[in-house]
Description:
Blueprint: H1 2-20, E1 27-36, E2 42-46, E3 52-57, E4 61-70, H2 76-79, E5 81-87, E6 90-96, E7 105-114, E8 118-123, E9 129-132, E10 136-141, E11 147-153, E12 157-159, E13 165-171, E14 180-183, E15 189-193, E16 199-207, E17 210-212, E18 216-219, E19 226-231, E20 236-244, E21 247-251
Parallel strand pairs: 2-6, 2-8, 3-7, 3-9, 8-10, 9-11, 10-12, 11-13, 12-14, 13-15, 14-20, 15-21, 16-20, 17-21
Antiparallel strand pairs: 1-4, 4-7, 5-6, 16-19, 18-19
Amino acid sequence: xxxxxxxxxxxxxxxxxxxxxxxxxxxxxxxxxxxxxxxxxxxxxxxxxxxxxxxxxxxxxxxxxxxxxxxxxxxxxxxxxxxxxxxxxxxxxxxxxxxxxxxxxxxxxxxxxxxxxxxxxxxxxxxxxxxxxxxxxxxxxxxxxxxxxxxxxxxxxxxxxxxxxxxxxxxxxxxxxxxxxxxxxxxxxxxxxxxxxxxxxxxxxxxxxxxxxxxxxxxxxxxxxxxxxxxxxxxxxxxxxxxxxxxxxxxxxxxx
Length: 256
């Protein structure tokens, strides 16, 4: 059953990518801006249709590259705006569509932020979210698309409906009281953490299997298809939930 659900999810995501990648979407317009952001500052981005990719770098500034692509009319590009609220300690980006709708425009973002920035909120409706090299990641949300996080840390909450979640967390500190949460309805979950991670793990998969490379001290639970256990002595909470898919907890391996 897991195999069939995963296959259906993959087809759904591939279908969306194929639709938005048709040659008819040849009318495009670029957006390129940079804004200073002080150490420890926050960044958030709200999109609707399109992939969002955020990468950490060594500069104390945020660089935003976006491509607006229209399906039918060039005039539609100007009806969809990219609004930026930039302050020295916080930057917020939002894709705005006209209230009366009827505009078929996708916006794809590639953003660079300081490694030490706090990624407070990142969301889209139709598209993948991808984050790499950011020290503090908090809320990630999409509906039709995957969520992928590499070389990150913080109290991560990742939620999608039709898509897979892949989290590679370099650290979860005791002060990250909310720990890490990964949720999907139709898709699989993979969480990679260091081999010495200390955490309390709760995993729930209704139509799928749970597998862990790391030794877990199992605890009793009253709910079917749910697992409770400890990594090491236990510590920050990790919540993993899916309906149609499997869950894998694996060792984070060095990329060097």
